[in-house]
Amino acid sequence: MKILDLKTVAAELNQRALAHPIGKLQDIRAELHHRRRAGQDIFTSSTTFPKYAFHFGGRPELQFNIAWDDVSGDEQLRHGVAFSFEPNRNLPNPVEVLSPKVRRFNKFMRKRVGS
User: For residues 47 and 17, is the Cβ–Cβ distance under 8 A?
Assistant: First the structure.
């Protein structure tokens, strides 16, 4: 049974992240993309929705995400990483942009798991 709304969960994760390396995510992204930092929070009001949230800036890259999922009639919080291949105005051809990143991620995962 869902006890908290996702905005509350995202806000708590943003706060707790400050004490961990993931709290530097937006600084790392700014450095990698040669841009100014887009804020400190991982999840923002523009990337948090009633049933899911992804990190700010995540569309053209690997996304950190959280979501409420229905598991056997019970809503449970899930977390993970994903690539979103849904086209939109800012990313009209996600397959072209994300395919090399997916290959690199899969190669990394194969090395980590030893397959």
Answer: no
